[in-house]
Amino acid sequence: xxxxxxxxxxxxxxxxxxxxxxxxxxxxxxxxxxxxxxxxxxxxxxxxxxxxxxxxxxxxxxxxxxxxxxxxxxxxxxxxxxxxxxxxxxxxxxxxxxxxxxxxxxxxxxxxxxxxxxxxxxxxxxxxxxxxxxxxxxxxxxxxxxxxxxxxxxxxxx
Length: 158
Known about the structure:
By secondary structure, this protein is of the alpha+beta class. It has three helices and seven strands, in the order βαββββββαα. Strand 3 (53-60) and strand 4 (64-76) form a beta hairpin. It is globular and about 45 Å long. The model is unreliable at 154-158 (pLDDT under 50).
């Protein structure tokens, strides 16, 4: 079965280095999580580098507990961060954060998720009504929060 792909891009006024550094701090995951997918547990690695693992507990809709173990598989500062779910609700999950400088001094941030939904072929068939809308809501929220946190800081400093 092939992987499905979800992508969402945002333009930020913050510098590429600021955007990348923000995403290097796994504690910021709490800041980027909506209330309906609240982080309930976060075990961080001593250093954030390729091979590092994070453990994340999430409660979806306040009811459904999920546990994830995520490994950083590629780290190419200041442009690329790739994490892969070692365990979690999806049979396959790879999240790529690509940071690209803009000519105006800002940044393009692209989140790309390659995934296989739970429940096999049924999950693939249901994807347009289940996983895909959840990803859209999640990343729309995360990008709005990223813009609020980083662009407002960019305006305060610069």
